Amino acid sequence: MKVAVLTGGGGGARFLRGLVDAVDPADVTAIVNVGDDLEVLGLSVSPDLDSVVYALAGLADEERGWGRADETWNALASADAFGGESWFRLGDRDIGLHLVRSQALRAGEPLSQVTSRLAAAVGIDPTVLPATDDVLRTWLETPNGTFSFQQWFVARGHRDPVDRVRFEGAAAAHPAPGVVDALHNADLLVVAPSNPYVSIGPILAVDRIRRALERRRIPCIAVSPLIGGRAVKGPAAEMLARMQSGTSPSHVTDCYEGLIDALVFDEADAVHADAVAARGVRPVIARTLMSDADARRRLAEAVLDATAVA
Ligand code: GDP
Ligand code: CA
After folding, report:
1. Which helix (H) or strand (E) holds 112?
2. Cβ of 14 less than 6 Å from ligand 1
3. CATH code, domain with 19
4. What is the pLDDT of residues 112-127, one digit of tens each?
5. In a domain, 165, yes or no
6. Residue 143 region, left (φ>0) first, then alpha (ψ -120 to 50), else beta?
7. What's this model's pTM, rounded to 2 decimal places?
8. Choosing a second label site near 253 at 20 to 30 A (CA), which of 37, 113, 114, 189?
9. Which residue of 154, 194, 239 sits with most ligand 1 atoms within 8 Å of its CB, as the best mutation to test the pocket?
10. Which residue, judged by its Cα, is nearest atom 27 of ligand 1?
11. What is the count of structural domains for the chain?
């Protein structure tokens, strides 16, 4: 069963770890958000791509939720001491990857090609693709001003309420090589339990990716990132409350109008099943908290089981 997954770097990356325990890892393609990408200290950083690669390679720091395990912070401390920027936390091991990517990008290698080299270097079998090789950047419009994603998320601690999300460069962005093929050749499309606005939104802002989902001939199943109306982590609930007027599974469904056939959401939200069904999307109730490897695999299996009847 070939599965193509649209994903960010948090809940999405955890979901992918479960998925590769439930299907042949070589049959999995992750299509990853690049709207969070940025340059820090002259380095090209792709946080979601790296989270996915680190998670699949077993290198991620599970407690912190981002970056690498066994990390040290000497380079950043030194940069700070010399008056360099230190607001965006980059660990020493992480910087090693950024050095390799930055050099390759400067030499003209596309992001997708660099990513595939990095994934091969750590020996992972799933295909990891950026949604696009073009520059696509997420901006947040808030009552306190318009901010780039990392300014809003990291520097300002995602405290500013968001009125609108914009994707700079999206209109001209092409899907990275392999993305459209992966969507067409898949037996199942999955929208990971990622933030609909700032993780999945930038991917869907690439017109040919959105169209591939709209015209799908195979099921597309989304997994809700909210449990009991709350995000497990991050600002998804606040964003839905403000921009979708609610945080129930039906509000998550509304983020993906015309794009999904089923929504997998938590038992805690079972009472909302009818409201999801009323939108023409099949409600699938499961345990969606990915607390350990078993829970991750079981959630992936719930998605695969849902396919059988989707
Ligand atoms: P980001 O790039 O780090 O923002 O990552 P994602 O967008 O992929 O993931 C963030 C989302 O994952 C948040 O909205 C969380 O609520 C969700 N999430 C994290 N852990 C879990 C989990 O165990 N279960 C579910 N259902 N969602 C989760
Ligand atoms: Ca992200």
Report:
1. helix 111-121
2. yes
3. 3.40.50.10680
4. 999 999 999 999 999 9
5. no
6. alpha
7. 0.98
8. 37
9. 194
10. 225
11. 1
List pLDDT tens digits, range 231-245: 999 999 999 999 999
Ligand 1: nearest atom to the Cα of 266: 26
Is 153 within the bounds of a domain?
no
CA geometry: angle 198, 202, 204, nearest 5 deg: 120
- Please tell me if the CB atom of residue 225 comes closer than 6 angstroms to any atom of ligand 1: yes
**CA–CA–CA angle 56, 60, 65 (5° rounding):** 115
- Does some domain include residue 263? yes
Rounded-to-integer distance, Cα 269 and Cα 160, Å: 27
Please tell me the distance from the alpha carbon of residue 91 to that of residue 76, in angstroms, as a whole number.
7
- What does the pLDDT look like over 2-43, one tens digit per residue? 999 999 999 999 999 999 999 999 999 999 999 999 999 999
The residue range of the domain holding 48 is 3-136+171-309
Distance 8 CA to ligand 2 centre (A): 5
Q: Is 130 in the pocket of ligand 1 (CB under 6 A)?
A: no
8 Å CB contact between 119 and 16: no
Residue 145, SS3 per DSSP: strand
